[in-house]
Structure formats: C-alpha cells, structure tokens
Specification:
Rossmann fold, BD-FAE-like_dom, alpha/beta, BD-FAE-like domain-containing protein, AB_hydrolase_fold
Length: 189
C-alpha cells in the first residue's frame, strides 16, 4: 500500500528522471499540474521546490479539516480499487468521505497529519500557483483561501478561482482548461 509520504517520494523520482534524462529539461521549464489528490502533490512540490503549479480541487489543509471534523464518522465511498475517478462520488460536499480519505492517506497514523498538511510548509520560495475549486464540492473551497492567505504572508503570487456548484476536479475541465494553459504559458514560456 502506498501511504504518505510515498506519493511525494514518487514525485521526486519523476523530477530526478527529468533532470537526468536525455531531454535535458531545465528546471525553469517545468510546470506541474494535478487534480484532487494530484492537486495535493503538485502543491507540495510548488511549496518545496518553487515550480509553477496548477491544482484543481487540491487537498491542502488536511489537518485543519480533520481537527474541525473530529466528531464526523468517516465513511468509505469507493467500492472497488480499480474504479474510474469519474465513478467516485463527486456530487458535492461529503465530510464523512473526505475524513475517510485523510485517514486512509495516512494509513490511520494520525501522528503524520501535521507533516502531511502541505500548507504548513508555505515559505518565501514557494512557486506561483493557480488554485481552482468549486464552492460546494468534496474538497472544501475554503482550503484555497487558507493556502492563499499563507502565500500572501510570504509575499508569493497566486491565482484562485472558486466556481459555483459542486463539480470536483475534472468535472469543471471545460471551464478552466484554457485558463490553466494560459497560466503555464505565462510562467514557462
């Protein structure tokens, strides 16, 4: 089972491969994108390594959510390990499922919660970010605001878009793909 921090270690393996490959990728030409848990991973690398990043429905404030929902009973919603992401519950807020995701991400070891909460590491070298979320979706829209506040305190540039409705990640693809491409054109070209 790939529990935290395995996902982050995997991202560093990809970056290492890019830097050693025949492509001779220069770090200033790397931008990173992720949706949902992938949004969490790219935001982590943007914070630690300064890469420009776009996160759609990223999970940023695991610790804050968990502490706010101590009395919420977690509930697993995935019925198969091989289910397509489009088949997973994505029709609005679901605190029970979100809490289950956090616990599952940590393998039940809540002593890792603070370390797994990437907004705790925002610093003056964090990369520019485009953060997108829906108001009433699985990932609370307020997580973007919390991350934005931390970035502002470090004098870091970011863009945020909070959409009406309850679509999660790929659910608002058509509404934000052009904005996402423009973001990377601005910061990578």
């Amino acid at each position: 089972m790939n529990l935290y921090p395995t996902q982050i270690q995997d991202m560093y393996l990809v970056l290492d491969w890019l830097n050693r490959s025949d492509y001779k990728t220069s770090p200033e030409k790397i931008g990173i994108f992720g949706s949902s848990s992938g949004g969490n991973l790219v935001e982590e690398l943007a914070i630690k390594e300064g890469y420009p990043a776009t996160a759609w429905s990223g999970l940023f404030d695991l610790e804050g959510f968990y502490n706010k929902h101590k009395n919420t009973i977690p509930k697993k919603m995935i019925i198969s390990d091989n289910i397509a992401i489009s088949e997973i519950y994505q029709d609005g807020a679901n605190d029970e499922y979100y809490k289950w995701l956090i616990i599952n991400f940590l393998g039940g070891d809540m002593s890792k919660l603070h370390d797994a909460t990437s907004i705790n590491r925002v610093n003056e070298n964090s990369g520019t970010m485009l953060l997108i979320n829906s108001i009433d979706e699985l990932v609370p829209g307020e997580e973007i605001l919390k991350l934005g506040e931390k970035l502002l305190k470090q004098n870091q540039e970011f863009q945020a878009l909070i959409l009406k409705g309850n679509r999660h990640g790929e659910g608002y693809y058509e509404d934000v793909i052009d904005m996402t491409i423009d973001f990377f054109k601005k910061y990578l070209l």
